[in-house]
Amino acid sequence: MPFSRERQDCPAVRGDRAAGGKGFPGLNCARVCVYRCTFRRRRDFQGNRRFSKDSVMQKYTASFLGRDCPGVVATVSRILGETGCNIVEVTQTILSGEFAAIFVVQAPEGRSAEELREQLTAGLAEAQVDLSVLVRPAIEGQWGKDLKCDPFVVTADGPDKPGLIAAMSRVFARHGVNIESLKAILGEGGEDHALFVFEVMVPEDADLGRLRRELACEGQSRHLRVSVQHRDIFEAVHRVNSF
């Protein structure tokens, strides 16, 4: 079987021929290439561009906000790929018909945050997708990485009144508790009823008993039922209730 130019240039093929052989048969040659050859270029998972293994990538956080419609994620990810970005992490949600997403991406060396924002904005305009774009350098490290924390789920339900989230979050802040996720469900228990679910990380050295009491006191003053459960217990209870 004749070898392509790429295979003829492969060190594994050249070495075999130098020894008097005829080269490796098709599949075997590919296997030998994997083990013996050094590939300096690879295709990113979106298949849009090739990057050198030695290239320096800059990490950015790109936020998108605007009216939701089918194909928004496909459009955003396509444009990111066309600008040479590799998606590292992403989170996305819909709030009252508004699309909200945060992409952590690696961009080619020399690309500034403003240049990337302009490219993304232009690509979205060309695709007729109305999204606001914010790009900033990604922050290295993560809160609590060196802290020992336990995950808890705190729920508060009752009458929906202004200031509820602010009051609950002040208690968390006083105890050094970090809110990792917050969801509000309005109207399910009545027109003026609200359910708030806080997923938080509680440092091991925090006074959990005092935290519970302060949350309960804040809830009572606002006629709310407050529950504080370790995440493992919360998930186990809801798995049982789902059957």
Explained architecture:
With 243 residues, the chain is an alpha+beta fold. Residues 1-54 have low confidence and may be disordered. Strand 8 (178-186) and strand 9 (193-203) form a beta hairpin. It contains eight helices and ten strands. The chain has three domains: 5-38, no CATH class; 50-137, Alpha-Beta Plaits (2-Layer Sandwich); 149-238, ACT domain (Alpha-Beta Plaits, 2-Layer Sandwich), CATH 3.30.70. It is 35% helix and 34% strand. The chain has a four-stranded antiparallel beta sheet, with helices on one face. Strands 8-9-7-10 form a four-stranded antiparallel beta sheet. The chain has helices at 5-8, 11-18, 26-36, 72-82, 113-126, 164-174, 208-221, 231-241; strands spanning 41-43, 50-52, 57-67, 86-95, 98-108, 131-137, 149-159, 178-186, 193-203, 225-230.
Using the alpha-carbon principal axes, give the shape.
globular
CATH superfamily of the largest domain: ACT domain
The H-and-E topology, N to C, reads as: HHHEEEHEEHEEHEEHEH
Total domains: 3
In DSSP terms (H or I, runs of 4 or more residues), the helix count works out at 8
What strand line-up does the widest sheet have? 4-5-3-6
Q: What is the fold-level CATH name, i.e. the topology of the largest domain?
A: Alpha-Beta Plaits
What's the architecture of the largest domain in CATH terms? 2-Layer Sandwich
Mean pLDDT rating: 80
- Specify the helix fraction band: 25-40%
> What's the end-to-end separation, in Å?
61 Å
Which blocks of ≥5 consecutive residues have pLDDT under 50? 1-54
The beta-strand count equals 10
Strand-residue proportion: 25-35%
Report Rg.
Answer: 27 Å
Largest sheet: 4 strands, antiparallel
Counting copies of identical and different chains, the oligomeric state is single chain
